[in-house]
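Please annotate this fold before class:
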Amino acid sequence: MTPSSHAPTSTTTARRRPAPERPYVEAAARLGVDLDAVQAALDAFDATVRRREERRRAATRELVAELYARDGVTPSPGRVDAEAQAACAQEHEERLAAELRRLVTPQVAAVRRARTLSDRELYGEGQAALNVLATAPRSLAEFQPQVEQLYAAEQASLDGFATGEAHAAGLLKAARGWQPRRRMRLRRELAEAGRGRQAAAHRFRAAAARLAAVQLREARRAEWLAQPKVQEVLGAGAAALRELHDRAQVQEGAATAELPTVGRPVAPGAAR
């Protein structure tokens, strides 16, 4: 594809700016967790995504090998790997294109400009946008509903244990000295409530760190996407993809209209 005039320079695409510290600190402070725990949660999320991608690549390779075996062909391992890699790359580009359409609504000027470009130029604009979008901080939005639900559940659990511990402490304080059995039972209940509260606090801190990690990553991603140069490239790419889609629809409609009419009923009064 021909490089687009809107494509950023290699310095812009290859080098990422340092992540801002402010969202990092705010996300941690708001939920009462330390920065190391947030970073550990970020690393865990990224590792989960990488493992999923590795499983997808392995499954694609198995499928390619299975299709060759079904045809009675024994390709070299390198060929299977190359085809599997190409299939995964195409799937990745399709996901990026869908994400670009979802994220970016092109400006009117970009749409008008796209209409003046050739198909080759449009492909270049679209590819440039996908290349830039691929360098964005990885979104963790898919994990957010589950993480928020877990955070709320752990907070409720911690509140319940804290309430139970306070209740047991109050009963123990009110128990008279001549009730040794009752005081012993209340001490056991207080100890159990305390252990439960400590365990719940540990789980709650872990859930809070995961939630802060998601919020931090999405804040970083939003800031990255808001950069003027990034918006310019993505807007041009979104307009290019839209224009390519519209042209394909027009060509498909024209091809359908030119299909032979053999076997179709002739309308009464139509010329023969």
Remarks:
- Residues 5 and 262 are 48 Å apart (CA to CA).
- The mean pLDDT is 84.
- The chain is about 75% helix and 0% strand.
